[in-house]
Amino acid sequence: MFKTSTIFLTFMIVCMGFSFHANAQIGYLNPNLKELPIVISWTGDGIKITAKGTYANTTNFLHVKASRYLEQAGSNEIRVIPGSVNTPVIIDLSNFIRKTEPTADTGNMVDLSTPFIDIEMPKLALSNYNEPNSFILDLRGFTDESNYSQQLFLFRGLDVFFVATDNCANLAANGNKVLVSVGHCEVKHVVLKGGLLDLDDMDEKIPALCRKYNERYYTQSDGDAFVCLEDCKEEDPLALQNQSHVRGLVTKYNITDFEDHPISFLDDVILTKKGVGLNLKAKPLKPLRKRKNKKVAYEAYDHYKFFPWYEFINLSFTKYVDENQLLIEDAYNNSYIFNSRVHFSNVELIQFFNELQALISAQVK
Fold this sequence. Notes:
By secondary structure, the protein is an alpha+beta fold. About 15% of the residues lie in helices and about 30% in strands.
């Protein structure tokens, strides 16, 4: 068992919205993400998928399953025939990007024995794109004749994923779906990055990082900033209450992945093996008088958000307005304002977030 801890105390987050009309890419691109060995490009007559680098000359590196919408144009070149509408091209990297085995090359994420990528297109559009370890690329406006052209790509076998292209393009993201609108752009391809996350030792590393910041910055004299969960049931009279609290957080953040579990928490903030859940609820700055049996009214953005690690590692953190607030931006133009009003300044929070980000991104393989 482990002792859970976190430096997060009461702070406010204001979400400034998600839009499919954002321009260019901002924020932070994690340098640990490796480029995938394929290129998606387009001309006026459609889209091509080609192998890149040394894999371009590898026999049958792209394994293509017969489909009415996929055409083999070369040994490692595939043409997506127009007319597939919303039927996604499935690009499965499970046999290319693998966890490093003891006998494999530890300096390379590729299993050198049989590296290949499966590409197929189902006969029918998929009804659910929220598959584990998968991401959707929604490419629009790639034909000269129509800005309404659209093609979906489903990437399987990835824990983290990132799409980059010319600043002319409009980009946005929502969960595991990335929209790229490229109408009238000079650049005719997208850069794809991604990999796997090795999180086997996060149960030890994340609590250790939280304890480090508790010891450095927590100023209360009546205890620590972290709470004990599983490993102190006999000593801590609040152990059962803490467990109930964590179960409530799991419900609020809609953490339903059976492989996930809480690592560190305090109040309405939780760090799990797969990401960070944050309370977006803005509590009143001053006590409000309320009638009997009447609940306090919160602002319209009263909700909770869970950042999976693939989102968290591409966030940027900067000071904002005063010593408490900090601005958080992602690479797809979403932004958030954190207000830490107790115990930790924005500089201390930025340090923590950056160190947590470095800790997670170092695990990208």
